[in-house]
Amino acid sequence: MSGPFQILIVGSDPQIASECEAALASQADGLVLLRATDARQAVELARSRRPQLAILEMGSDLSRLKAVVTDIAAVSPETLAAAAFRPELFGHDVSESALLIEALRLGVRDFLRRPISAVDLGQLIERFRRQTASGPSRWGKVVAFISNKGGVGKSTLAVNTALGLARRYPERVLLVDTSLQMGVCAALLDLEPALTLTDAARERDRLDEMLIRQLATSHSSGLHLLAAPPDAMVAAEVDDDLISRVLTLSRRAYDYVIVDTFPMFDGVAMAVVDSCDQAYVVLENVVPTLLGIAKLLTLLDAVGFPRNRQRIIINRYVRHSGCLKPSDVALRLGRDVDHVVPYSRGLIAAANLGRPYVGRGWALSRCATRLNEIVDEVLSITSPELNGKAARGATAESEPHA
Asked: Which of 342, 296, 309 lies closest to 146, judged by CA?
């Protein structure tokens, strides 16, 4: 992870932050301290700032420590946790080794004795820097398709991108339909899932990587689908915290996680954006949609979602008189257009039949070529901190033939 090394300090005792500040006074620049006094604040900071290290106040009640470690891991899996404890925590009737071993089982990676010394904290940071640099052994990539305008073909792009990935890597790609009110991914794949995100919500206390795979429905292509709830009534059981946890676990269980979203920037959509490595913003080349997308891009900037993790797709592009060209869209948005997917009757027919377009053998069509370019770009993602010059498809000046 690039940028400063961020340390999240979590605890109700104000002295723990003071001890860390004093211990870091002699350290080199490039360290940022974040302070949280309770679990809720810690989770929000972990979700928004993605610190490399979390130092957690440890008491005799390990259930509280477990809750914080679990919640931080759900929203920021790359954050490594260390526990800070006072030696007097271990009385004559308490085994220090047994308590520390139990904390390790809960997900704590290291320990600090209080009062925290500069030497101990410096060594801990150095160890964690090396672990962070090496990264986890295997994290899947999360890619979202978003728009604040319905009917632009966002779900169709998500489904076909997921299918294109699954054709290359069967059983290693998950499509998550977070369009809770009107998810259509199952219909586009001609599937009738027995289990959905609602079941994940009802089993949230025992969710793990294995259960995520059990909740997913298999498609003949090798793609797995975690479907949207069957109706709006039960969809109310799915919230942003659940979505964050589902996506965190999904990226541990699959190499690629594609997320379809509802055309509204609510808490669930925010959780998706927070969790994803790349977001494809989908629009059509008409003025009303363009104006809405301009507002969405402004909102993404406001919530701190990096521009180098955003991609703009013009979908169902047509070259009729009065329609905006990709260069017009780029000019009005102040952004490059990364992909232009032309209008295709075959794509619409495939959606109506529940037979994804890229699975129908029309690889030589212009539309399929553009879809495969998106698949190739997803495959090129190498880390959450994406290179702004990642491989791209059509540029703002590209105008494919309809």
From this structure: 296
Domain of residue 361, CATH code: 3.40.50.300
Question: Residue 193: left if φ>0, alpha if ψ -120 to 50, beta else—which one?
Answer: beta
Rounded to whole angstroms, how far apart are CA atoms 319 and 336? Answer: 19
Residues sharing a CB contact under 8 Å with residue 217, sequence separation 6 or more, in sequence order: 186, 191, 193, 194, 195, 224, 225, 226, 227
Q: Which helix (H) or strand (E) holds 200?
A: helix 197-202
Burial degree of 320 (CB within 10 A; 0-12, 13-18, 19+)? exposed
Chain Cα centroid distance, residue 313: 19
Strands 224-226, 80-85: pairing is: unpaired
Q: What is the mean pLDDT of the chain?
A: 84
**3-state SS, residue 311:** strand
pLDDT tens digit sequence for 32-43: 889 999 999 999
**24: pLDDT confidence band, cut at 50, 70 and 90?**
confident
| Bond before 77 cis per omega within 30 degrees | no
Higher pLDDT among residues 30 and 362, named by residue: 30
Residues of the domain holding 47 = 5-134
Q: Are 260 and 128 in contact (CB under 8 A)?
A: no
Share of residues in the chain with pLDDT > 70 (%): 84
Compute the distance between CA of residue 216 and CA of residue 213 in angstroms, rounded to an integer: 5
* Pair 69, 24: CB distance under 8 Å: no
**Position 76 in a domain:** yes
pTM: 0.65
| Coil/strand/helix, residue 160 | helix
